[in-house]
Here is the input.
Amino acid sequence: MNKTQTAAAVESRFAVSAPLEIRAAEDGAGVAVAGYAAIFNERADIGGYFQEMIAPGAFDGRLGDDCVFLVNHEGLPLARTTSGTLKLTVDARGLHVETVLDPSDPEAAAVIAKMRRGDMDKMSFSFRVEKETWDESGDMPLRTIERIAELRDVALVTRPAYAGTEIALRSLEAARASAEGQETQTARQRRMRMQLVLQEG
Here is the structure.
């Protein structure tokens, strides 16, 4: 089965193979942080329920969203796109994040220390889906996120998290129900055509 569905609830995902980079800012005033919040075409196992992949183009039109840089998707923002302190770009690999944290900000200083020690070295992003595709032809259902409806935040995270798994599972059930309905309709049309052929014969 390969079926497209739409969803609107907020989810968050973890960039599995994309560690953060930290260095002194070029002007010496602050600490530059860079990394990928999302990687394209990388399959992630979501709690053993399904696999998920983000398609290239999923963030098209979303880089202008009012997106904030958070810790574990909560608290006060450390940076923000609309203020110019957070830069989001998309390249062949995925969604790239850049910001310069101010060490004079106590919240930023605490995060910088944890990143330098390696206690926080991964990123995540929070989003709403506009278009997705489910494929159940393999051993495990595969969800491909084709287009993002809203990019809410990017975040430093302490551990892998897949918030919104239940939302995706509901979407999978809806895709299955829709496919079953289409199969029933197709079978009904096939029977009608056979009846017409028999009548004409």
